[in-house]
Amino acid sequence: MPSPNSPPEAPPSATIGLAPPRLDLSALPPRILRELRASHVGETVAVSLYDGVAGATTDPEVLRFAASHRRVERRHLRLFEAVLPPERRSGPMAFWRWSGRVMGALPAWLGPPYFYAVVAGVEAWVDGHYARQIALARRLAPDPDLLNLLEACRLDESLHARDATRLDPAPPWTARALAGLAVFLSRLGARAARWV
């Protein structure tokens, strides 16, 4: 039986049963298209982050957390793949997948406090990133289906951040520093993904 601090086997997800929005990409402002590219890259990195955990740790709770959260991130990625055709996506996808694997493997290898701190920090940043995208979409392209997609993904990311924080609410300063670096790199990655 899992300990009281164990991650849930299957975290609830706001994207369960959510159909991909049917968007007329030619009618969307270029700024929204760039944001969709950034979201597609972000979800690619997230899936790869959790993929990177498997070879880096044998901790059963970390592995369980990674597997259950990967399922949700994979659902997000499928939704963005359905919205954004390959020719509209970022070019260096191999680089994004590699960076996600490193972002998952390194903290998992260092230990649970590092892994949970990185996940909590990055997912909290992604929650805010989606909130900013939602505000922008409301102004520039207030399509209800697009807004529902972004909000459902935002809710899931917020839950992931809370799950990780609950499992290690007081990580050492070194883990917090690594999480800060991961957030900084995520911010840079999102900016780059809008253009490359």
UniProtKB/TrEMBL annotation:
Pathway: Cofactor biosynthesis; ubiquinone biosynthesis
Domain of life: Bacteria
Transmembrane annotation, as ranges: none
A Pfam family: COQ7
Keyword Metal-binding: yes
Keyword Metal-binding: yes
Swiss-Prot/TrEMBL keywords: Iron, Membrane, Metal-binding, Monooxygenase, Oxidoreductase, Ubiquinone biosynthesis
Protein name: Demethoxyubiquinone hydroxylase family protein
Taxonomic source organism: Azospirillum aestuarii
